[in-house]
Design brief:
alpha+beta; five-stranded antiparallel sheet; 5 helices; 5 strands; about 30% helix; elongated; disordered C terminus
C-alpha cells in the first residue's frame, strides 16, 4: 500500500469465504492447514453450485425484507382503460418556485397500457397525449360520482387505430421541450 502496490491473493477473498466451511478445530496442524487451503483453491463445481445457492438465497431474503419494510409504500396500480388518473408533474420539483405550481396534472383518462408497462393517456376533451407515462408517475383520481365515459367515444378512435398508436415508437422529448410552467 505504501509503495502503491496492491497485495495479490491467489483467490478472490469473497469467493474463498464461501468455498470451504471453517472447521470446528481450535488449532490446525500444518498438514490440516495446507489441506484446507488446497480445498479452497480447488473450486469444485459442487462448491460453486453451493455458492450460487447461498447468494441467490441471500438475494431473495433481501427482497423479502425490503418488501416487508416498505409494504405500506409499495403499491402496484393496474389502471384499466377508462380509469381516471392524475399525472405527477415532476418538472416543477427542480424549480425554486415549486410551491405555487401544481404537483399533479389532470385528471386524464387511461387509454391503453403498453407492453413495457407505460400508459397512453387522453385529456378529458379527447386529445391523445403523445407522451407515454410510467406507472410510478400516476395516481388514481377518485371522482365524486362514479359515472364512466367510454374512452373510444371521447377519442373517436377504433381498436385498430388505438393498437397502431400503442405500437408506434415515440421519442421522448428533452426537458426543455416540455414546459409545464404554462399550466397554472
Amino acid at each position: 500500500m505504501v509503495h502503491g502496490v496492491e497485495p495479490i491473493f491467489p483467490f478472490d477473498l469473497t469467493e474463498g469465504t464461501f468455498l470451504v466451511v471453517l472447521p470446528d478445530q481450535e488449532t490446525f496442524s500444518t498438514t490440516d492447514l495446507v489441506a484446507w487451503r488446497v480445498r479452497q483453491l480447488q473450486k469444485r463445481q459442487q462448491d460453486l453450485n453451493n455458492i450460487k445457492e447461498k447468494v441467490l438465497k441471500a438475494h431473495y431474503q433481501s427482497i423479502c425484507n425490503f418488501e416487508q419494510c416498505h409494504c405500506r409504500s409499495i403499491v402496484d396500480y393496474d389502471f384499466k382503460p377508462g380509469a381516471y388518473v392524475l399525472v405527477h408533474n415532476s418538472k416543477v420539483e427542480y424549480e425554486l418556485s415549486c410551491k405555487t405550481k401544481p404537483c399533479y396534472l389532470g385528471p386524464m383518462i387511461v387509454v391503453h397500457r403498453t407492453k413495457g408497462g407505460a400508459y397512453i393517456l387522453v385529456e378529458l376533451d379527447g386529445a391523445v397525449s403523445k407522451l407515454r407515462y410510467a406507472a410510478f408517475c400516476l395516481l388514481p383520481y377518485l371522482p365524486h360520482n362514479e359515472a364512466k365515459i367510454s374512452v373510444t367515444s371521447i377519442m373517436g378512435l377504433d381498436e385498430e387505430a388505438l393498437n397502431s398508436l400503442a405500437s408506434e415508437n415515440v421519442e421522448e422529448p428533452d426537458d426543455e421541450a416540455l414546459d409545464f410552467n404554462l399550466i397554472v
